[in-house]
Design brief:
alpha+beta; Nucleotidyltransferase, domain 5; 4 domains; four-stranded antiparallel sheet; three-stranded antiparallel sheet; 9 helices; 35% helix; elongated
Length: 354
């Protein structure tokens, strides 16, 4: 059980049962406190690895130093919460005594309620907290609340999560703890290759990628070619049109031909004209289905980016002696040199015809 105790009233603003004591559990505990009471001014914790990073032994200050390296310390910094470390159980006796009371009483409460799952146990705990706070809570010396209201524009989920920085690979994928996340082009940016992004592992299990102030929703990347080759059966591969194509288009040379798999010593698929034709036909069928569903094929044109034409007109005026070179202009617009040349040629042709 993870528990917090309000130092002024002796009440428990929130507590939860978790399978283990980890960062996600304590972030969930803090989320419950903020949702019920508000953002606290300070938290008083022990030296658990969740709260305290490796520190200089010569620094004995109880207040956490700026630049804390734990996810917990980073979240407190973003919320403006001061962290104070206790170096002994006696130093935080209020929460230790509450834990002793809860350990003694909750076992009986859970047995009487017949709680058998984690969700049932947390429901019993919620009901128990309400009775506990009503019976044992005391009035604070000052009536004003020390909890601050949460900014309505703040996405609390983007703060109370696991954040790690990553570099986007050339294939627009991000590697995160053994998982490959695929990023897709947008109207503003056709490729994220080389960009430094922030991966957020939310408490609800979602994985999001943030680039500056833009939240991207990635998907699981398709397996690598080496992984796919490892899955290929050593037997023959049959290519047949057993299911009708929804577009009404029938691939050629697919109906009855048995195509051998890539066994040792045989040619690979793109060196076999028959198998290469099957691959080409399947790709065409997939593209046709995507078009009929209204999906875009290929990258969006740079001219479709918001306000690109206005930005392009401003940059073009600066190209020339004493101004920008074409390569500098392409970099400023975020496009390739060949794309800029094509746009300039199109503009020149339109001006000539006009």
């Amino acid at each position: 059980m993870l528990l917090a105790v309000d130092d002024a009233t002796g009440t428990a603003p929130h507590a939860i049962f978790q399978e283990q004591e980890d960062t996600r559990g304590y972030l969930s505990l803090l989320q419950g406190i903020i949702e019920r009471r508000g953002v606290p001014l300070a938290v008083y914790t022990d030296g658990h690895a969740v709260f305290q990073p490796r520190r200089d032994p010569s620094n004995r200050s109880p207040v956490s130093q700026k630049g804390s390296s734990t996810q917990w310390g980073r979240a407190l910094g973003e919320l403006g919460i001061t962290q104070i470390f206790a170096h002994s159980p006696e130093a935080k006796g209020r929460v230790e005594r509450a834990n002793g009371t809860f350990q003694d009483r909750l076992v009986a409460e859970l047995r009487l309620a017949g709680a058998c799952t984690l969700a049932e146990a947390n429901q019993v705990l919620t009901d128990f907290l309400a009775r506990f706070n009503h019976r044992f809570g005391v009035s604070a010396a000052q009536t004003e609340s020390a909890y601050r209201p949460l900014d309505q524009e703040l996405d609390l989920g983007s703060v109370l999560c696991i954040k790690e920085l990553r570099r986007v690979a050339k294939d627009n994928t991000v590697q995160y703890h053994g998982r490959s996340l695929q990023l897709f082009p947008s109207m503003e940016r056709p490729s994220y290759a080389g960009a430094r992004v922030e991966v957020q592992e939310r408490l609800d299990g979602r994985l999001l990628v943030r680039l500056r102030d833009q939240i991207l929703t990635p998907q699981e990347a398709p397996p690598l070619a080496s992984e796919l080759r490892g899955r290929v059966s050593t037997g023959p591969v049959r290519a047949s049109a057993s299911e009708p194509d929804p577009t009404g288009w029938t691939p050629q040379r697919v109906k009855t031909r048995v195509i051998p798999g890539p066994l040792a010593g045989e040619t690979i698929w793109y060196e076999d004209p028959a198998r290469k034709q099957v691959h080409r036909d399947l790709v065409r069928a997939g593209m046709e289905r995507a078009r009929q569903q209204g999906k875009r094929i290929g990258r969006p044109r740079v001219s479709e980016r918001p306000e690109f034409e206005q930005e392009f007109a401003k940059v073009v005026k600066r190209i020339g002696p004493g101004g920008l070179s074409r390569r500098q202009a392409a970099e400023e617009l975020g496009i390739g040199y060949a794309t800029l040349k094509r746009l300039l040629d199109d503009q020149h042709q339109r001006n000539t015809m006009g």
